[in-house]
Design goal:
Blueprint (H helix, E strand, L loop, with lengths): L2 E18 L4 E14 L4 E6 L12 H16 L7 H5 L9 H19 L3 H5 L5 E3 L2 E3 L5 H13 L4 E5 L6 H10 L4 E5 L11 H7 L6 E3 L7 H10 L3 E4 L6 H10 L4 E4 L1 H4 L2 H13 L4 E3 L6 H10 L23 E2 L8 E3 L9 E2 L1 H7 L2 E4 L5 H9 L1
Parallel strand pairs: 5-6, 6-7, 7-8, 8-9, 9-10, 10-11
Antiparallel strand pairs: 1-2, 1-15, 2-3, 4-13, 12-14
Length: 383
Amino acid sequence: MKIARVRLFALRLPLLHSFETSSHRKSSLEHILVEITEADGRVGWGEIASPSEPFYGAETTATAWEVATGHLAPMLLGHEGEDPPEMEAAWGRVRGNEFAKAGFSSALWDLFARSQGIALADALGGTREEVVAGVSLGIEPSIDDLLAQVERQTAAGYPRIKLKIAPGWDIEPVRAVRSAYPDLELHVDANGAYPDEDASAAVFLALDREDLTMIEQPFAPRDFVAHARLQQRIATAVCLDESIVDLGDLRTMITLAAGRILNIKVSRMGGLTIARAAHDLAADAGVPVWCGGMHEFGIGRAANVAISSLPNFLLPSDVSGSDKYYADDIVDPAVVAVEGRVRVPRAPGIGHEVLVDTIIHDASRTFDSATMGEQARSMAARV
Ligand code: OSB
Ligand code: MG
């Protein structure tokens, strides 16, 4: 593989229903779409789904743009490799910036699968024909609003609901949903909002009685010890999300028993190659995984569906249909869930047509390596 051209498009899409987590509320999202082209004209697409503010992780749309245009694109141009893992070596010296890398990694995998004439899921080693999707519900203005959302999504057929929790919005809403839906597969996600394990012990001991599948990321990302201590005290599985950025983190989690379930996010870990490696490592350790989302547009969503088809994705993934979030997605067909299941596309690559004219028309910012500056060109020549 050799990439002749890279284009990036910053694109904002309004959310149909605004989403609030422990840190903030948002009503539209701006992601960066990555288009890479080989000399023969074949194209691959990826998505940089970084939040615009540094509350989930350290990256922002602005830092991702900077790293993508100033480092990743120039490094990729001129680099040669047999497959996506060899191509990703192009940016091996770049630390962190996983969201930015993930957009390029996914584009390489899409291109690679298309050139082999196979579906992305098959290129990755997927074994499922469809994946089970769950929905993630944000913090709502009231418990009645939350119950209305749960009603809407269970009526649409989603078999699992995840509730965002935060100090002040935890035991009460969870109990309300649990008593209205005694048999629903339910879990909670705190996005690291609880200060430490002693101060919040009462909350987690109470939630431990609500028959939850897991409690996701209660504490700060780097605090593996707090998660390990909580896991010793409660029967409910602790799941890590923000804590796990690389395979070293996953080995720490497994060694310390800091959780029993792993949320794999392609974006958070820097792409499909490492997401697949994390899947394999977790499988060897007997840790079931599921695929988390970052409200991806259709391109990133399709990559999430593809990775979710691997065998150790044993719990429902956050790959609900595009229509839960966006009125007009940028792929055709949109990603659809029927009775809470998404079919894994069989067409080559991500298996969806990318609406490139719409993207070009609506992009607020565009980068094209064909017109990039001298400095970036000389950098590309060095790698
Ligand atoms: O922790 O899973 C999370 C969205 C933004 C930041 C963090 C998270 C989320 C989600 C998105 O829950 C769920 C989805 O994409 O369906
Ligand atoms: Mg999470």
